[in-house]
């Protein structure tokens, strides 16, 4: 039996009872083209599982609520949906940082109070004995900063912030038109039109020292899409120009590269002896550089030449450092 269709039938039965129409199986079967047996099953479910006070009025020839104040539970939730909810809460908690623990717990408690007498109850502690999500190292995020940016996006108000540019190692004031909050690799980013650079940029929320909402409103950039804008990013890092990147992996590392769910436009090419190459287009070369170096001798940047030279230089410097005697 389709749970979605059952919910639709239950809502219609409830609507007709509340409207004083005194529905019965014959009327509903004729009006809605449902089978009488299915309608009676739904009625039984409402009485037994949803605690609906349904009775039959002989004079009216239909059903009514003996308690007019009765209301259906706000949420009908199945086991699979409960698990999905639990996992989403666990992941959100671990990626968002402890600053959001209180509002998350509040949301869980509200849902738990709503789910009564249905196919499942919200018992997160029991689920935690069966499932867990590893906690990753996440950048510290101020919950008030998240909420303020969310409000600024909704109201289309400019924000002034004291921002640290890690690449240049300097602080400066930036005024942006915030468009979209984005979470990636344990960190939150804000996409916005940067009045200093006169273009759309993404900013790491963990590098904002202070901020204030401005009264000045803005118009959203026409046609802006966060998905399209980040399509050429790599692990949250996006440069100004995109380039084609090609990386070789030996047979050992290729096993894990194959397992990953790469975007559709990324190309994997199988080579002899179990090796492979990964080819894609991105503007986040700094992110690619940090990512590929963690594979050491198991990976090699084939293109672009500038990225290959940068990785080679970093590896030479690392080898030189390890060649020294320890202090």
List the helices and strands and how they pair.
Blueprint: H1 3-18, H2 25-32, H3 36-48, E1 54-57, E2 62-65, H4 79-96, H5 101-114, H6 124-128, H7 143-155, E3 157-165, E4 170-184, E5 187-194, E6 199-204, E7 208-217, H8 226-229, E8 243-249, H9 251-259, E9 267-270, E10 276-282, H10 285-293, E11 299-303, H11 305-322
Antiparallel strand pairs: 1-2, 3-4, 3-7, 4-5, 5-6, 8-10, 8-11, 9-10
What would you say this structure looks like, in words?
With about 325 residues, the protein is α+β, with helices and mostly antiparallel strands. Mean pLDDT is about 80; it is low at about 115-120. The chain contains 11 helices and 11 strands. It has a 5-stranded antiparallel β-sheet with strand order 6-5-4-3-7. Helix 2 (about 25-30) packs across helix 3 (about 35-50) and helix 10 crosses helix 11.
């Amino acid at each position: 039996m389709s749970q979605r269709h059952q919910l639709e039938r239950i809502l219609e039965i409830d609507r007709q009872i509340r409207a004083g129409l005194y529905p019965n199986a014959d009327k509903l079967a004729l009006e809605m083209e449902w089978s009488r047996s299915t309608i009676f099953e739904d009625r039984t479910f409402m009485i037994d599982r949803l605690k609906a006070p349904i009775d039959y009025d002989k004079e009216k020839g239909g059903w009514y609520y003996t308690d007019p104040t009765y209301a259906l539970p706000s949420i009908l939730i199945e086991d699979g949906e409960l698990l999905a909810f639990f996992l989403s809460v666990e992941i959100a908690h671990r990626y968002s940082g402890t600053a959001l623990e209180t509002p998350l717990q509040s949301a869980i408690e509200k849902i738990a109070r709503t789910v009564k007498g249905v196919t499942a109850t919200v018992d997160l502690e029991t689920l935690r004995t069966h499932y867990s999500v590893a906690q990753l190292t996440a950048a510290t995020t101020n919950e008030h900063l998240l909420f303020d940016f969310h409000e600024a996006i909704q109201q289309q108000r400019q924000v002034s912030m004291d921002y640290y540019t890690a690449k240049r190692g300097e602080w400066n004031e930036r005024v942006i038109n915030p468009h979209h909050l984005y979470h990636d690799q344990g960190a939150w980013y804000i996409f916005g039109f940067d009045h200093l650079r006169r273009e759309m940029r993404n900013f790491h929320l963990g590098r904002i020292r202070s901020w204030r909402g401005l009264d000045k409103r803005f118009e959203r950039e026409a046609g802006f899409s966060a998905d399209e804008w980040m399509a050429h990013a790599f692990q949250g890092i996006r440069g100004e120009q995109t380039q084609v990147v090609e990386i070789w992996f030996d047979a050992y590392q290729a096993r894990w590269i194959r397992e990953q769910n790469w975007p559709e436009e990324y190309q994997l090419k199988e080579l002899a002896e179990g090796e492979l190459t990964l080819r894609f287009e991105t503007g986040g070369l700094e992110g690619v550089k940090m990512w590929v170096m963690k594979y050491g001798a198991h990976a090699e940047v084939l293109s672009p030449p500038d990225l290959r030279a940068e990785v080679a230089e970093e590896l030479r410097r690392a080898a030189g450092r390890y060649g020294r005697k320890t202090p």
